[in-house]
Amino acid sequence: MKISTEGLKSFIPTNTINELIESQAHAPESRVRDIIAKSLDKQRLEPDETASLLSVSDPELKQLILQGAHELKERIYGNRIVLFAPLYVGNECVNDCVYCGFRISNKECVRSTLSHEQLIEETKSLVETGHKRLIMVYGEHPIYSPEYIAETVQTVYDTKYSKGEIRRVNINAAPLDVEGFRTVKSVGIGTYQIFQETYHEETYARLHPRGPKSSFLWRLDGLDRAMKAGIDDLGIGALMGLYDWKFEVMGLLYHTIHLEQTFGVGPHTISFPRIEPANGTDFANHPPHRVSDEDFKHMVAVIRLSVPYTGMILTAREPIAIRDEVMRYGISQIDAGSSIGVGDYSSKDEESKKKSQFVLGDTRSLDDVIYELAKSGYIPSFCTSCYRAGRTGEHFMEFAVPGFVKRFCTPNALLTFAEYLYDFSSPRTLAVGMELIESETARIEDDNMRQSVRDKLASMKAGQRDLYY
Ligand code: SAM
Ligand code: SF4
Known about the structure:
By secondary structure, the chain is of the alpha/beta class. It has 20 helices and nine strands. It is globular and about 60 Å long. The structure holds S-adenosylmethionine and iron/sulfur cluster (SF4). S-adenosylmethionine (SAM) binds next to β4.
């Protein structure tokens, strides 16, 4: 792959962002209310509006923003939470991202790439706990070519097992060229996720001193190339802690607007991971712009309101208490039962920490997470139906098509949750979960849909699987 940035221009207006953050400070309550109302009216916010929300410091106005985000989530998306797991395929890397345990200069990292057999074992271990959706993660190295990525994804899809199979694979890997993206698309991936890490070009250059990732523009253009290759299901993200978080949120918004304007489709998901400690990585223990819990909460709410149509991912990097709290403000997907060491699901050893990219904050099992979610009234969902039925852009449809959530998302969440409960859950999760399924099914307004869901649930109880709308 030849990296060329010829003809590329950044669409991140650094000076404008700085000016907006400054000029929009101290917005009066009436403006904050108007902006929230616009978002609740399902309109994406403009940069000056997002800057106003970001700059709010008055505790009461902050509370308004949190409430607005909560209302938007409840009104549009309801109480489902989609679950997935990361699968680390290999940690070889030619880049030197200063915050990452996999960087080339980290002598403490034990390098490892799954063999074909190990990949099958990892997949089986995940299927055995009940997972249906994965994100496969790769370092950046010539051995992880587009063909290799495609082959490993295919292996996961082909790993059928008595207790089920993985039904959707998303990817988090280096940006490819258009040809490379086409190769990866050909095996039927879900979302291709690339985090810009920081949208502040100068900071980016300093923190990515070596390897292909040192080119800010090549990375920034990555999702454009994916679109050109026909992948329209894309995830953007910024790694919080490298630079001012308000600037990063503005960067995410400008990236969103760029994709909308260029391709007519915004991002499928937005991620905003905070830096976690990483083995042999001093920088990660002391990130220069650490985001406090208070700011993180505010940030999640502002992102929710700014791009109301997008999915929002919160990973197990975050500790349990934060996850529980910010879920209210618009999160649609979380990972659970995650391991981030290469090969950890099937054979954890004492070197596993050294094969990991960073340290997780939430190490509960999938079943424990599901138990807690169900107890709090969230419907855990393993739904992959839109992707498999060819309804691409599903998150946008959930948002834009009236009745879509009621017709597809809630029933599919209930069916996939029931499937989990019958095949994988502990007795305590089964009890709480069945009660939730009962009460949520009773709440379905449409008589025909309610009956249809009850019929499908009965078929599941009798042994049928993989039923969906
Ligand atoms: N190597 C590919 C890349 O850099 O795009 C993809 C995989 S990389 C393993 C996935 C993401 O992990 C990176 O984009 C980065 O945002 C995140 N990451 C790296 N170091 C981290 C740390 N110490 N804490 C939290 N997230 C980290
Ligand atoms: Fe390599 Fe990605 Fe880690 Fe950078 S973030 S060192 S590219 S694995």
